[in-house]
User: Fold ABC transporter permease from Planotetraspora kaengkrachanensis.
Amino acid sequence: MNAVVADITYRAMLGRKRIWLLALLPAALIGMAALLRLIGGPDEHTAVILMEKFSIGTMLPLLGLIAGTGVIAPEIEDGTIIHLLSKPISRPVIALTKFAVAASLVAVFGAVSTFVAAFLLIRDESGVAYGFSLGALFGGVAYAAVFMLVGVLTRHAVTVGVIYALVWEGLVGGYVPGARSLSIQQWAQSIADRISSSPFLSSDVSLGFAVPAMIIVTVGALVWAGQRLRSLSLTGDE
Assistant:
């Protein structure tokens, strides 16, 4: 970790329009939860559906995309990454620091808002709020690593990330049984299912697979990103 790189990255993420993008989705989640509470009262089934479909299924991958690509992709696109690479800081340390910033942002905006929304709907009933917030935390960390890697690998990071989030995570990983075991969304739901005792929540992926898979994907993405940064020359060419 490098404190200077972290500080610069936080300033860039929180000082641009990305802060509004990061805040918009959590605000929408909490707003929907408040509206549902007002209209229909506490409903565990509704809470689980909202957490599955919007929090874990939609908000989390998009937050991971915004934070993961945002911490490094713009610098690569406009060439300012060269200034950072010219400093006596190892490339893996840069990758790790950028990842830590992205993961912390997803944790704050994703996991915290998930807990608030679920708690607002049904309080601590069946552990739904705790389960989904923990699932969002771990899932968000994995998303941050994957999307940061995408930001390092391609100059079209946002386009590639959106396709991945919508097609793989939203469609293939959500509805194709054989592909669910390779979906971060499903891994996050597996954690939520283990923590929560709700009868309305079930996961097709075992926790014994989901947790190691998250660790492997996160570490693998970080190592790959660090190695990829090594291949960037100070002229911006590979």
